[in-house]
Predict the 3D structure of the following.
Amino acid sequence: MVFSDLLFIYFFLPACLVLYYILRNTTYRNGVLIIFSLMFYSFGEPVWVLLLIGSALVDYLNGLFIAKCKKRRSRAAVLGVVMSLVINLGVLILFKYSGFIMENVNALTGLSLPVRHFTLPIGISFYTFQTISYTVDVYCGRTRVQRSFLDFLLYVSLFFQLVAGPIVRYTTVANEISRRRFSIFDMSRGIERFIFGLGKKVIIANTLGNIADKLLSFENAPVSAAAAWAGVLMFSFQIYYDFSGYSDMAIGLGLMFGFHFDENFNYPYISKSASEFWRRWHISLGTFFRDYVYIPMGGNRRHQILNIAVVWFLTGLWHGASWNYILWGLFWGLLVAIEKLFLRKVLDKIPSVFAHLYLLAAAIAGWTLFYFEDMDRLKQCFSGMFGMNGIPLSDDITVSLLKGSCFVIIAAAIFSCPVCRTAIEKTEALAGKSALAYTAAKTAENIILLGILAASSILLVKQSYNPFLYFRY
Amino acid sequence: MGYVRINLKADVRKRTAAILTVSLFTALFIGMGAVSLILERPTVSETENRELETLPDFSLKSYLDGSFAAQLDKYFTDTVPYRDKLTEYAAALENAKGIPAPQFYGVETLSDEPTEENPVQPPVPVPAQTEQTEPPAVSEAVVPSYTSVPHEETLAAETTAVSESGTETSGDVSEFLNNGIIVNGVDMYGEKAGIMLFGGNDKQGQRYAELISSYKRELGDGVNVYNMVVPTSVEFYLPQKYAKYSNSEKREIEFIYSKLTDGVIPVDAYSVLEAHKDEYIYFRTDHHWSDLGAYYAYTAFCDAIGQTPPALSDYTVKTKDELFVGSLFGYTNDITLKNNPDTFTYYMTKSPFSGETFKYDTLTSAGRNVIYHEYASGSSMYGMFLGSDGIHVKITTSAGTGRKIVMFKESYGNAFAPYLIDSFDEIYVIDIRYFGKNAVQYIKDVGATDVLFINNVFAANTSKLIDGIERLLISPTGTIVYTAPPETSSVPVETDQQGLPIGQISQTQPPQQTVQGQPLQQTQPPAPNQQTQQPQQVQPPPANTQAVQPAQTQPVQQSQQVQQVTAAPATVAPAATAPPSATAPPATQPAVTAPPAPAAAVSQTVTSPAG
């Protein structure tokens, strides 16, 4: 199941809310959340739900083991971390990368070993990272061990973030697992976030994604320059609205049930450098690699260039078992490294509009690498972008597609900037000034929310197929 | 103090606002959820012309493989209460996403013009040739070929549509080879229209022409074979700037006509339609032509058969009150089409006639013996003519020309057929996609003087339809058994043959039973076998029931020999033993008429050596 699904919005979510809030006791409420989470997951993965529970059990035991060793000041505690890493990464490699590895081994050695592609259990890239963060944090003493398996299972399986992130660290929610306070403000903000996220996904991401797919699905005929540029641009919007919309919904759901997750996106397209972009894009993944790979490897104190290369290789690889993702990761790594060497100083000095343009160009180039798993088509797209396909630069289909959805495209561009957040902040500031103005602003806000919810629901009746992009990871 | 008071006030306001927001939306989620469970869920979509998803049955297996959850999800979304209304709103929302612009649905730039480079599959006039490609052990020598239904799914869908909505569907857009649809960039008769783009090519066209030529070859000089390939709206109304998205139909029609041999007479519908292109001869929202377009094509046909058509004023002209939004809307859901509906005008002949309708599979009466289904409405208004494609129609007229015509068509032919009332004494309308019998045999059986193939150019380029033409040509069994029977078996076979044609079914009441009698007799001996067959008989068997005989790897003559040997005793037996019509109660009809192919095959192979 996905959040942008009528069955979720009008059946699963209300049922969960009602049962949750009927019960007053946190233990029972946690029980409700675990049951609904496992149901949510088993909806898409009826078999691999056992893998999820198994994975939780393994790291729960690893945590206990590490804590016990540490209490005795035994150095065997590190074994717990190693075990956690081996098992989690082993599972991840088996399901996600074994086919890719075998293919490359075959290509390199000329052998023809059997290549088996597993279907990827949903969310495996996210929850394995979450449980790794837990054992490492217990080992490093950043958090206390969780002694209740059910509480730990709740952390791992919580349906808000289970299938497509954000990667919530155990430390973030450790306290809220056993103690949550209901706040009407949280609830209200949660609903708001959820609906905004839904609109981002259904109204913007699906529309522009549809255009991108149409423009970039060239097979027999060469792609025109307009189609290539517009297609990649639409994809750049799509992937942002798709993924950040999902994160908004996850964070919103968390708030509805009393959990406070960290932000996962912070208007990445307004960045002025690659490093800034990655502090604003998929923040939970960036910080994960920073805290669990980059810094343990020595950060910027030892062989920084190597550390950067490894982190960005892994970032790319995490997104998919294909060379284009690795290329994409290394591309960003290269930009970050160059910025560290000298470009940062240049970017600081030039007028900021050029820095913005630099970042946008980098992002678009990056998403082009990201979109095409097939290297031939990637080449065709690039040569199309520079008008080297020997056909007219524009074509009717591109023009009419863009025209036909131009209001959504403009909205996508505007809402890539923090206008919404500013508007909400301004509205809240009105509360202390004028009752009338505040009431008016709040009413407007609710009407907008209603409109987004209604429009999204209606569009969903038509769109029977709308998976989230990040379900692939 | 003042500051604190303001803050307190602000806090109260914020709290009130939050409570309001929370109450509003939780009530909405929960209320809508409850309402969506209580309200009745639709089972069919009128606008989309399809059955909606159904609630899955829970089983451990379906749960574990994920199909239960997937189906539940589909069901919930697909059967939202007021679905048709909501999808209409969705279409309006889609439209509001930007400035109205030409919409391209599934359109691709056609990179190259159609070519003849690819060698064409030779048409197969001799049945023996294809028998080798058929799967073995399925023999139907005595099962009447009427009983097989080639496109079971489509037929099933249509039957449902009939029963649910009271009107009939009229063909499925996606059946035809197209290069997508343009909406909004094109005008027809002064209003915005949708146009389906033509993506056909010579490869299929050549096969089509060669197959029709082989019909003529099989039928000989006694029967005139006409071929009319009808252009569609794209040819006359597509703006020049979009020409690159559609191949030329004129070129393709000329190509097909140039490949006709053996004296097939081409009918030039193109010129007359082109001459009247300013008149309302096609629909803006549907992929069919209008009744007026069909009339002009009929005048072209009259030229070919040497008759003078009645003038338009000789017909009763009627126009539906209800506006028509057709298949192109169902296909694209483009609101522009909904906003520019068609007017549906039709021309009814004043000449007397009587119509009979039959089901293709059982050849039993289809119930309503009507030609003009004037109650047809909604998106299936084109079903006005002859009703559904899945119904086989015979029209008896008082034209007095002494000519009988068998017409092979897809849905374009539906509007055309009634015009023939003034030209032929008997008209047999056969949809290529649903008929299961050997067509040449059939034409001879009904004593037709003329045969017309009428197809729109998309259909004439669509491999599925062409496969149908080929299937009818080489089709069953019957041919071999009937045409070259050994002396002894000729009598029962003759009887059998008489039972088959439709014309006699309407005259003598129980001939189907004579026909059924044979499989019944055949299948009865292995009783358990038949038992197991029975439940499945509702579904027509797969295409291999067409198989004429066990596939042979031996030379052709030998395989024919074998068949005659196996078939002859089998056919003799039932006819000789008893009058089957007496023993076969009508109640068992459905079970019997569906071809229990494997059972028949088994029983036959078992009994033949014994006989």
About this structure: Chain B has three domains: 2-95, 144-474, 486-610. Confidence is low (pLDDT under 50) at residues 112-175, 477-611 of chain B.
